[in-house]
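Database export, one record per block. Field names are fixed; values are copied verbatim from the stored entry.
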Amino acid sequence: MADDIRSDDAEALITALKMLKGVIDVTPQESTSSDHIEQSRVKVQIRKELYAFIEEKLQ
């Protein structure tokens, strides 16, 4: 999922996902501060590359 949610809020979502046809199992993954830092770093890098590409194409 794109956004983090609290573990108690995740139970209803986990139950709903397990009811979908073809879903065998659903396991939650806890994120750490390192995960958030890495996600932010990647977003900044992609944004920089996208801006550079757009600037190059507009010239």
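Remark 1: The chain has one domain: 7-58.
Remark 2: Residues 14 and 27 are 8 Å apart (CA to CA).
End of record.
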